[in-house]
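User: quick one, fold this
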Amino acid sequence: LRVRVRLPGGQVTEESLQADSGADCVSLELKAADGALVTLTADFRQEVKIFRALILGELERGQSQFQALCFVTRLHRNEIIPSESMAKLRQKNPRTVRQAEEVRGLEHLSMDVAVNFSKAAQLSSHIHNVCAEAKEAIYTREEDVKFWLEKGVDGSMFEVLPQGSDLPELQRCRHCPDRWKPCICSYSLSIEWYPCMLKYCRSRDAGGKVSSYKCGIRSCQKGYTFDYYVPQKQLCLWDEE
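Assistant:
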């Protein structure tokens, strides 16, 4: 399914939504206003969601063509509609530019743990495909790790990253004057339009019995900001004042 959505700056972009009810996962992809390609994959079976950003590099500043980041967090119930409902979505007017009905609050996440790519398939089989370009840059949070460890996931794939409290001299990258020093990077992304809830309507039969049935979706927009440790500011050139 492809939908046209409006970005905050007013430009229109195309978003693609895919659902695999067999694997019980959904994914959506859109091009952000700055040219970054943003993907969200929701793995309902493992209760994992994976954000991937492919960010255009600044070649004139010594960066590679693009930089890939992966942020892996816990998927909560009712964050996004189930895969079988997503698979059935159709749109009557493909030319319509969609705007989300509900803006959900910005979530600010401190990604304080690195995930080992070669062991991550146990957390979610999708990490292997989605994060292949971001092998050295897969991040998650300690509180999500605790939840997954309780489910029996192998803890050896996680490594706690240096924190500001361990290294008092660790600055935010935007305040760090030296491009080769470690710092705390910030990256923001937004999912402009996604089906977040099912709508139910009621009907009465001839005997007056009321029943409810699915009769549509509610769409949401949600922004995320991720803070995470980088070994040098050169890996975080967008985060400048």
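User: anything notable?
Assistant: The chain has one domain: 2-235.
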